[in-house]
Automatic annotation (TrEMBL):
It comes from the Bacteria. GO terms for cellular component: cytosol. One of its GO terms (molecular function) is glyoxylate reductase (NADPH) activity. Keywords: NAD, Oxidoreductase. Signal peptide: none annotated. This is D-glycerate dehydrogenase. Transmembrane segments: none annotated. SUPFAM superfamilies: Formate/glycerate dehydrogenase catalytic domain-like, NAD(P)-binding Rossmann-fold domains.
Length: 331
């Protein structure tokens, strides 16, 4: 019989046909709790999942899926999955790195330019007739010559650094591990963490959400930043202590923020962030372009089919599970 798989991510029709030729597909709406979405006899037989970051994989979900072999995440970030627990149970976890780097970097720059040039308020100024009534809006800020600080220098951080060169920005970064190649290619200069926050005119976050990074940007960091500096976050909301950010924005300790991610998503309109004039908000759309989402779902489905059929998948989060399985097979 064909392996049974749960799909919670949007799969285009042509790709779905390929998938259906090799698997029995069970659709579950994105965001539904996997452990109680299906009757137990179906859960018992599930071998694979293609899911969005809204599907949580904790101990209870792994318990509910005893035959699970592969979770293919339709995202590069995998903070929705308890990786040590997956590894312990020999569940391979795959993700979609690289194909979204450009789109996320582009959105980072979109937010940066919106903040520096006050584009959202500028648009309202024209539409409301204020241009004719009150004249031109207030002057804004140059981007060229300013310092962009990157917290995190993974693949996305690197593409943001490359892009910043075209804007003639000075790029500095802090990362757990230094990136000798990025430094020698002239993409970015290393700074210790304190210096990164103190020197940046724009501080952009490109770290994954982990227990170590959760709330790692908070009151202390905002106090260290320049009052003219902007924060940009296209990574994961909980990396930032949002209550501390709101305080800093209200008190003018920093100039503004561009946020694609928040602690609670979807962000309720009642959030104080929605009432702050110096904030630009987006609905977690860093990778949400037609081309990038297609490349991501292609990769996520390929990762699943490869894993189920015994071909080494392109993008594994816990490759030790794969290595263990192929040793057993070869023995
Ligand atoms: C989206 O947030 C991703 O991690 O790909
Ligand atoms: C994250 O995985 C990145 O590629 O920066």
């Amino acid at each position: 019989p064909q392996p049974r798989v749960i799909i919670t991510a949007p799969v285009p029709a042509d790709l779905r046909e390929q998938l259906a030729a090799q698997c029995e597909i069970i659709d579950v709406p994105t965001g539904a709790g996997l452990a109680d979405a299906l009757p137990k006899e179906q859960l018992d037989s599930i071998e694979g999942v293609v899911c969005t970051v809204r599907s949580k994989f904790d101990t209870a979900v792994f318990d509910a899926l005893p035959r699970l072999r592969v979770v293919s995440n339709f995202a590069v970030g995998y903070d929705n999955i308890n990786i040590p627990e997956a590894t312990k149970r020999n569940v391979l976890v795959c993700n979609t790195p690289k194909v979204l780097d450009g789109a996320v970097a582009d959105l980072t720059f979109g937010l940066l330019i919106c903040l520096a040039r006050d584009l959202v308020r500028g648009d309202a100024h024209v539409r409301s007739g204020a241009w004719a009534e009150k004249g031109a809006p207030a002057l804004t800020q140059d981007i060229r010559g300013k310092t962009l600080g990157l917290l995190g220098m993974g693949r996305i951080g690197r593409v943001v650094a490359e892009t910043a060169k075209a804007f003639n920005m000075k790029v500095i970064y802090h990362n757990r591990n230094r990136d000798a190649e990025a430094e020698s290619l002239g993409f970015a200069e290393y700074r210790d963490r304190d210096a990164l926050f103190a020197e940046s005119d724009f501080l952009s976050i490109h770290v994954p959400l982990t227990p170590e990074t959760r709330h790692s940007v908070g009151a202390k960091e905002f106090a260290a930043m320049k009052p003219t500096a902007y924060l940009i976050n296209t990574s994961r909301g909980p990396v930032v202590d949002e209550a501390a950010l709101i305080d800093a924005l209200k008190a003018g300790r920093i100039a503004g923020a561009g946020l694609d991610v928040m602690e609670q998503e979807p962000l309720p309109a009642s959030s104080p962030l929605c009432a702050l004039p110096n904030v630009v908000l987006q609905a977690h759309v860093g990778s949400a372009t037609v081309e990038t989402r297609r490349a991501m779902i292609d990769l996520a489905v390929r990762n699943l089919l490869d894993a189920l059929s015994g071909t080494r998948p392109q993008a594994m989060v816990n490759p030790e599970v794969w290595a263990g399985a192929s040793e057993t097979t070869n023995a």
